[in-house]
Specification:
The chain is mainly alpha-helical. It contains six helices and no strands. Helix 2 packs parallel to helix 4. The longest helix is centred in the N-terminal third of the chain and has 15 residues. It is elongated and about 60 Å long. The N and C termini lie far apart (61 Å).
Length: 100
């Protein structure tokens, strides 16, 4: 019963978390996860929940290995989040690195 009460308190605390704080936590988690599959899973969960924003997109675009991956990713989420100048800058840098 103590474990259930502890879980209930954690749940209540999560509900009190502000949108800004959630955003900071999500950005920090994406940074910790780096370019691994877990980062992409988190990103696409945020997309499905329509909780993704330009900061998240920018981080995950940087985690892509190729410009084709970046372009495919941006195209796939364009209806949910609009790319900003940071996203396009990352894509240009990747194209230059690829010699395109």
């Amino acid at each position: 019963d103590a474990a259930k009460n502890a879980w209930g308190e954690q749940y209540k605390q999560a509900l009190r978390t502000s949108a800004d704080e959630l955003n900071r936590q999500r950005i920090a988690q994406l940074r910790r996860l780096g370019s691994g599959h877990a980062a992409f899973r988190l990103f696409f969960r945020l997309v499905q929940a329509r909780e993704v924003n330009e900061d998240h997109l920018n981080l995950i675009v940087q985690a892509c290995r190729t410009s084709r991956e970046q372009a495919g990713l941006v195209d796939s989420v364009r209806e949910v989040v609009r790319p900003d100048s940071r996203v396009y800058s990352s894509m240009v840098v990747q194209l230059v690195l690829e010699g395109r």
